[in-house]
Amino acid sequence: MNSTSLRFVRQVGMRRSHWATQRPLYRATSADKGNRRAIGAAYSSLSRPSSEGKSVIITGSSRGIGKAIALRLAADGYNVCINDVSANQGGCDKVAEEIRRMGRRACVAVADVTKRDEVKDMIETSVRELGPLHTMIANAGIVQVQHVLELSDEDFHRMFAVNVFGVQNCLSEAAKQLISQGNCRPDQPGKLIAASSIVGFKAFPLLPHYSASKWAVRGLVQAYAMELAKNNITANSYAPGIVESAMWDLIDAAVAKRTGLDPSEVTENMAHEMTAIDRVSVPEDVAKLVSFLASRDSDFVTGQTQLVDGGIIFT
Questions:
Q1: 92 — alpha (psi -120 to 50), left (phi > 0) or beta?
Q2: Which SUPFAM superfamilies does the UniProt record give (predicted)?
Q3: Measured in whole angstroms, how far is the alpha carbon of residue 309 from the centre of its chain?
Q4: 110, β-bridge pairs
Q5: Which distant-in-sequence residues (6+ apart) come within 8 Å of 255 by Cβ?
Q6: By Cβ atoms counted within 10 A, which residue in 74, 95, 237, 244 is the most buried?
């Protein structure tokens, strides 16, 4: 055996030994075959299975993308726990009432996602009011426009507290709840979903710490997907583009101040220059993708960050 062949054998051996520690040699069992039959039966329909009676928590859902997601999932059959911070409770109450008028159950759980104890209380409220949890959507987030050299430690800490630690708190506590319930199966997996962004694929100028936080969400989701697959839990995230929302209003105002553009022109110009479909997105565009991620149609999708940006980032 020459030196090249020997190196190849060693490399293969190292790869095998690494994965052997992660995943023992697989041997099919009768239970595995039963699971495959159950999954096959579930997939026998060509239409999307209903989410009737399932429950979901959606953070930051008093307005904007979160509200659109809540209304869409209620239309899909979910009972919905609406969450936001106390300053937005009025919006939460209105969204919950709108969902009840649709014939679904809804509750409000005011909580700051940066505080793990409040996240635990939010989940307890949802389970008490709506029954066992099936899906967590960590949608809450903040944005700040700032030059990279003007960022303070406080700016960076605050961004990561909400957009990264807040997501971690929600996914972690929801996963523990799903596991303790014992109702996640191969043909009915629990679902963890988080908000990333197009800037989680390519950073934008003046959004350095926001971009970094959304890259972090992608990595976190991949870690959850790998570690919780054995518990029949999937983890994915969605990456919106330029969306007509309160968050983009903040970006418009800050960019306009720095560039001299009219605030009303910033988003339209960006969408025209960057988006293949050549329009500004609306929250309902994002809600449609999240509807898929929260449905049975996505049961074999995990560890992914799916773009919904009208053609800005191509993968």
A1: alpha
A2: NAD(P)-binding Rossmann-fold domains
A3: 15
A4: 84
A5: 145, 206, 261, 266
A6: 237
Q: Which amino acid is at 29?
A: T
pLDDT at 73: 98
Q: Which of 67, 78, 191, 210 is catalytic?
A: 210
- The length of the chain in residues reads 315
Whether the Cβ atoms of residue 181 and residue 123 lie closer than 8 Å to each other = no
**Closest to 308 (Cα-Cα) out of 154, 212, 193:** 193
Vertex 289: Cα angle to 181 and 293 (nearest 5)? 25
253-276 confidence digits (pLDDT tens): 888 888 888 887 888 888 899 999
Residue range 45-80, pLDDT digits in tens: 677 888 999 999 999 999 999 999 999 999 999 999
pLDDT tens digits, residue range 225-255? 999 999 999 999 999 999 998 888 888 888 8
pLDDT digits 0-9 by tens, 14-53: 444 444 445 555 565 666 666 666 666 555 567 788 899 9
Q: What pLDDT score was predicted for residue 22?
A: 56
Domains of the chain, first to last = 50-241+282-308 (3.40.50.720)
Nearest Cα neighbor of 110 from 96, 122, 93, 127 is 122
Among residues 54, 67, 191, 214, which one is catalytic? 214
- Record the pTM: 0.87
214 part of the active site: yes
